[in-house]
Amino acid sequence: MDIEIKFKWHDQDAGTQQQNLKVPVAIGKEASQLPTEISNRPISQLVLAQSKVSRYHALIEVEQEQLVIIDQNSTNGVIVNGRRVSKQVLNSGDRLGIGDYTITVEFNLPSALAVLQASTVVNQPSQPTQVATELNTANEPEATALSANATPTIELSWEDPATGEGVTQMCQLPVVMGREVAKLPLELDRRPTVQLTFSSLQVSRYHALIDLAANLNLPGSGGTAGSPKLAIADQNSSGGTFVNEQKITSQILNHGDVIRLGPYQINVAIAAEMAPSAANPAIRPTIVPSSASSAGNASPKLTSTILFNPSTGQPDPNQPNAPDPLVGAASSSGSNFPPPSFQAQQVAVQDLHATGLPVSETVYGTVGAGLGSYILADYLRISGVPAHKIMAIGLEPNPYARYQRLCLNSQIPPHERLRSNSDSCPDNLWGWPSYALREAWHDFGKGKVTQAWRYLWQVFAEPTFSETYTPRAGNVFDSIDREAKRIGWDKIYHYGRVLAIRKTNDNRYGIAYSLGGGRRAFVVCNYLHLAIGYAALKFLDDLQAYRASTGDFRSVVNAYEQHDHVYEELERNGGTIIIRGRGIVASRIVQRIHEARKKNSHIMLVHLMRSPKSQGNKFGTAQRPVEHHYEFQPFNWPKACWGGDLRVLLESASAEQRKELIADWGGTTTADRGDWKMIVDMGIQQGWYQIRFGTVEKVEKAANGKTITHIRERGIQSQVQIEADFIVDATGLDANVEASPLMADLVDRYHLPINPMQRLAVENDFEVAALRNGKGKVYVSGAATLGGPYAAVDSFLGLQYSAQRIVDGLVAAKAPNLKYLNGFGSFAQWLKWVNNRSPD
After folding, report:
1. What is the pLDDT of residues 613-662, one digit of tens each?
2. Is residue 567 classed as helix, strand or coil in its secondary structure?
């Protein structure tokens, strides 16, 4: 039975596009990676050559007399009418989000198939698939029930405990959940299952099942007037299944419930009134956001990130979501750079010279010129490389400029303490004297003896008998200034925006970059290092939708944007502020509000969290403490991840095992500091600090100019509205490779492998093996390598560790000018550091 689909979309370069294709249809960005047949039937191919489209992104197929789209484990997901789905029935007129394309699908079903699709009802199995032993119903609100003819559909959303990235899945029942997809059943009583995997050793291979309560043989499962209810059943998991922090064997689910599997907090939203209608006969409907146009007009393209401006390095909410084309396309200034020769995987060096543009040559090149580049340059200089043999390309001459700006924006001024280990010294690869010892020595000299001894006691007794010592931001920046001057950073740094990188025909690497003012140039290097940091700020979808619809960038801000006006206005006029997110940045903003209340006590703070947090992550016998739904840990990873047994364990693990370990060790945590915990206790007791839980449905502007946040709290079927003067999104930073045009281009051009955490796959010495070019090598440091051999990749010590492994690898490869630092050589270099003498 042939079904033809009309695909219509708009391409920025080619304009309106249309293709008519017969089902089944495979969608992706590379024709060579798309299947050509399925079950001996030819497959049509819809090729979308765009960086955010995966090689094999999605499949549209007829399944059980319905037209469905199935995500093929794509990086950026499949969106149907504004919601991310893993598998979804399609209706004519639906809008698909594939990469940056919004594609409208139109089709006519054959009459027999249309009748089947309109009249099919949910089949009830003759025997239950699981037998429940008991049902927890005491003191629970009335269960959310579906109308009798409704499709059993549930939305599950959670945050990845390792990366903090949000995931939302609209699922049709039954849903099976566990750690290993091979252990999850493909079907139950001839009904196909939706399989959700959670990478954590605390999650069993087959952990839990969500289905209609009647299928689980639960008492009272019919609901009101016989309408069905949904329920969850534990599958004899080792760690247990929890609903609203109560361990259950089986449990009817309500809209707003929170399921916990290991470290995963999964929010439940039940499509309670989604019966088929004459206008929309599909039995598996999609929940459409209220902002979507009912007239069929495409809603504005929303992103969950704020990109950094590629020319200034500043967070810029006006940056387009789609990266500028890198190669062979006219820039805004009308030039054609990089040249067409950069479309090839390998570029001839003579072709670069033939352009007439400046071509520089160096041995060691590093892109980013931030802390990652600076720390590697420091190691290279101490290991014998002259400054003129190293070239760092970036937008700001100060290597900590972006980090300092993010600190200031998130309310960490120079006198405040960073969340950093005392012996993690980006200015001193030996780690001695530590920041604690230096600060103590300074205070001894000022006569502050008691305070100096307190720092030394902290280092000696942390974390059991004292709070963990962390350095002041200003002290860290001053020490980096000193070391940068000592190693000749002013000779190493070169201003430029890197646009593209290619292998050259002489086993090196070519870098095309812009110097501003219409000037462009190339660099050719033997060894290349990439340390571009975070490409974007995370931004919640509902807040992005608010800013897009209202143009209000003052009331709703990201914690990493410049937003001092928020505190200044609250100090003048009082008011209410909402914080979203609960990590270290959120805790600092709570402290900042406490400081503002000293000037104006008429300030209220509402801390809005998606779900309660009653217990911390576990690993082995260790478990992090929790107070007031904050999970505490001195640093963002357990200390053994830096140089102890957990580091060794991670380095020896497989890629999938690393994802599981990082999920158990990671999570959104904040520092265990007594002064800050005292502020929270005081705020709750005095009533100016409130913690609320719920799912945000929308944010809109009130007639008085304030914001109104509509949330649905657990067990409450009506909306709760919170009016506030300001909302601060403190959900963090985005290290997705696809968010960086430079990295996305490299991944696309050289088919670079991506690890299970959607970051670059690197070797244990941080080399990207797929970019090896004869003797030439490319290394990567920082957040882009999460999921590799080291957990704390974006910390000071993580950047130092990767630099050390890179230099060791270069020494082993007999790279020029490098020498292995033995004990005597290292001590000699340390003496030079102590006396502030050049490494040469």
Report:
1. 888 888 888 888 999 989 888 888 888 888 889 999 999 999 889 988 99
2. helix
Among residues 69, 63, 31, 29, the alpha carbon closest in space to that of 49 is found at 29
Residue 570 has pLDDT above 50, yes or no: yes
Strand, coil or helix: 648? helix
> What is the average per-residue pLDDT within 810-816?
95
Tally Cβ neighbours within 10 Å of residue 306.
23
Return the ∠ at Cα 306 (arms to 303 and 312), rounded to 5°.
140
Sheet holding 25-28, edge to edge: 44-47, 25-28, 58-63, 66-71, 87-89
Of residues 642, 563, 540, the one with CA closest to residue 168: 540
Domain that holds residue 103: 4-110
777 assigned to some structural domain: yes
Is 562 found in the same domain as 531? no
Domain count, the chain: 5
pTM of the full structure: 0.76
pLDDT per residue as tens digits for the range 532-566: 998 888 889 899 999 989 999 999 999 999 999 99
Please answer whether residues 308 and 316 qualify as being in contact, where contact means their C-beta atoms are separated by less than 8 angstroms: yes
Is 764 a residue whose pLDDT tops 70? yes
- Mapped to the 3 state alphabet, what secondary structure does 266-302 carry? EEEEECCCCCCCCCCCCCCCCCCCCCCCCCCCCCCCC
Per the model's pLDDT, the better-predicted residue between 2 and 158 turns out to be 158
Q: Give the Cα-Cα-Cα angle 783, 374, 485 (nearest 5 degrees).
A: 155
Phi and psi at 488, nearest 5°, equal 80, 40
Residue 645 resides in a domain: no
- For 495-529, give one letter per residue: b (16+ CB within 10 A) or e: ebbbbbbbbbbeebbbbbbbeeeeebbbbbbbbbb
Asked whether residue 50 falls in the same domain as residue 105, the answer is yes
Please work out, in degrees rounded to the nearest 5, the angle formed at the alpha carbon of residue 776 by the alpha carbons of 775 and 777: 120
Contact indicator for 741, 326 with CB cutoff of 8 Å: yes
Segment 449-489, tens digit of pLDDT: 999 999 999 889 888 888 889 999 999 999 999 999 999 99
Q: Which of 798, 836, 785, 788 is nearest to 426 (CA)?
A: 798
For residue 141, tell me if it sits in a domain. no
Residues 391 and 427 in one domain: no
Q: Does residue 300 surpass a pLDDT of 60?
A: no
User: Residues 173, 249: one domain?
Assistant: yes
Question: Could you tell me if 723 and 751 lie in one domain?
Answer: no
Residues 6+ apart with CB under 8 A from 382: 429, 487, 821, 829, 839
Intra-chain end-to-end CA distance of the chain, in Å: 76
> Could you identify the residue written with the tokens 């963002």?
636
Domain boundary residue among 690, 714, 734?
Answer: 734
Residues 728 and 809 in one domain: no
Q: Tell me: the pLDDT tens digits for 195-223?
A: 888 989 999 999 999 999 988 887 665 55
Among 89-103, 325-339, 473-487, the range scoring the smallest mean pLDDT is: 325-339
pLDDT beyond 90 at 377: yes
CB 542 within 8 A of CB 700: no
Which CATH number does the domain housing residue 356 bear? 3.50.50.60
Within a domain: residue 293?
no
